[in-house]
């Protein structure tokens, strides 16, 4: 008896065709502004609110002064990329009318964390954020070699998150500081532990070059789980009008959540370093993007830019910082944020597609 494998649930093919037609006819209607608000809950634990959805919770591992409840900001970036590429593969396979039996991506990225969010003394030429990300995509489906090559080209060319990492995105950030009363402060991180980490990172920076890893598994349609270390999966979806179930923010919104959490970590670390307790730490983020390429399915002018082109951040901090301390902290946080630099750096992205 011939063995049959259950195909992954596809997205709405007729709906995709309708979206493509509209995007090609009136691309100006598909320029959007994504928004998010990150609220620090104490230490390095941050909630990011997107639309009316459950907050995206982002933490740090215990050895980096978190509680290890969720992947850290940079690992969330890998999850965003894995989910975005998975969405692109599913969309293009649907357009080709080819059912998929498996869609899985393995990701790893190189990063040097020796700057310690700007607290450590770091050479000016040092690069923060991911410098290279490698992706291996594993797909089961009946593609011809030509279809395989076409799909891979379209997915990589038009992935919003992949292009956000390659675009040298303009990041505009403002810091607003209010005087604190110090009656109720956010829980700080371990100040002595931070000093010890900084001392080690300055003495042996080569020990702080890390490789972050993630595995994204498509659950059908545009719903994707990404596994990092031994933690609960990061679930990333799309809104209903983009063929998802609207259960979580989409990949690009997760990028904003990653950035908000990473900047919040930087502010908290630098405030701890100078001994200033914070009473509030909140960031408002918005990013400009054109989604008319429809993950490479629509016919799009080659000069079109996919991904975020500009991200604006307003950070609100309540704490007793002098004007000089405020200026130095803002400079350090923006200069050494791993996620901010991943977005600005034109990261080398190496991707391979493996068909079965």
From TrEMBL:
Gene3D superfamilies: 3.30.300.20. This is Putative OsmC-like protein. It comes from the Bacteria. The lineage of its organism: Bacteria, Bacillati, Bacillota, Bacilli, Bacillales. InterPro entries: KH_dom-like_a/b (IPR015946), OsmC/Ohr_fam (IPR003718), OsmC/Ohr_hydroprdx_reductase (IPR052924), OsmC/Ohrsf (IPR036102).
